[in-house]
Design a protein that fits this description.
40% of the residues lie in helices and 19% in strands. It has 227 residues and is of the alpha/beta class.
Length: 227
C-alpha cells in the first residue's frame, strides 16, 4: 500500500472522528489489521497508529515478530479456550471477553504467568443469535464477577453491531451501549474500570463516535481492499 494513500485514509478517518465526537471528546483508533501484511501495519505505525486489532490468534502469531514494537496488539475476534495460553503473551488487551468459561480460562492462565490481562466485556447488544457476547440482562452481574478475579483487569465494554446498509438503523444500539458504559462507571465496581467503550467499524464508526464511543475499529476505511 502506498504511504500517501494510507496517510490520506488516516487523515480522513481522524477528521470524521473529530467532527463526530465533539460532545464526548477524543476517540482512539484501533486499526483492524486482519489480512493486512506486517509491512503495511508498520507503515501505519510510522503514521501514528498505535493500537491494532487482530481477529485470529494464528494470523497474529504469524506476523507478530515482524511488527513494530511500538504497536499495541489487541485481540478483537472470538477466542477459543485452547488459544488463550498462546495469545496472552502477544496482546496488550483482549477486547472479546464474551462468556464465563473464557473469563475463567484467561484468569487461570494469566495468574500462572503472573499477570493481570486487560479485557473488555463483549456485549451482544442486539441479541443476534449468530454472535457471541454477554446480554444486557447479565452484564452487571458478569462485570462484578470478572472484577473479582486477579488474572483479569476489566477496562470497559466492546460491541459488534448488526451489519446494516444504513448505520442509522443501529444508532439506538450504540446509544444503549453508552448508557451501560456510564451506568457501570457510576456503579464504581471494585476491580472494574470503565475507561474504554470500543464500538463502531468502517461502516458505522461515525455514528458510534456521535453516540459516545471512546474507541472505534476501522479496517477497510484505512487499508481498503486489503481487509
Amino acid at each position: 500500500m502506498e504511504r500517501e494513500t494510507l496517510e490520506k485514509n488516516l487523515r480522513e478517518v481522524r477528521a470524521r472522528l473529530d467532527a463526530a465526537s465533539r460532545r464526548w471528546g477524543h476517540v482512539d483508533i484501533c486499526a483492524v489489521t486482519k489480512t493486512v501484511d506486517a509491512q503495511t501495519i508498520n507503515l501505519a505505525c510510522e503514521l501514528g497508529v498505535r493500537v491494532i486489532g487482530e481477529n485470529r490468534v494464528q494470523e497474529l502469531t504469524g506476523k507478530y515478530d515482524q511488527l513494530d514494537r511500538r504497536l499495541e496488539p489487541h485481540l478483537i475476534g472470538h477466542l477459543q479456550l485452547n488459544k488463550v495460553k498462546q495469545v496472552l503473551p502477544l496482546v496488550k488487551m483482549i477486547q472479546s471477553l464474551d462468556r464465563r468459561e473464557l473469563l475463567y480460562e484467561i484468569d487461570r492462565r494469566a495468574q500462572a504467568m503472573g499477570i493481570a490481562m486487560p479485557v473488555l466485556i463483549q456485549v451482544n447488544i442486539a441479541k443476534e443469535p449468530q454472535k457471541s457476547g454477554v446480554y444486557e440482562e447479565d452484564l452487571e452481574a458478569f462485570t462484578r464477577e470478572a472484577a473479582k478475579l486477579s488474572g483479569v483487569r476489566v477496562q470497559g465494554l466492546m460491541a459488534i453491531m448488526p451489519l446494516v446498509d444504513d448505520p442509522e438503523e443501529v444508532r439506538p444500539c450504540f446509544r444503549r451501549m453508552r448508557a451501560w458504559f456510564d451506568r457501570l462507571r457510576e456503579a464504581d465496581i471494585p476491580g472494574a474500570r470503565m475507561e474504554i467503550l470500543s464500538m463502531g467499524m468502517t461502516g458505522d464508526y461515525v455514528v458510534a463516535a456521535e453516540e459516545g464511543a471512546t474507541m472505534v475499529r476501522p479496517g477497510r476505511a484505512l487499508f481498503g481492499a486489503r481487509i
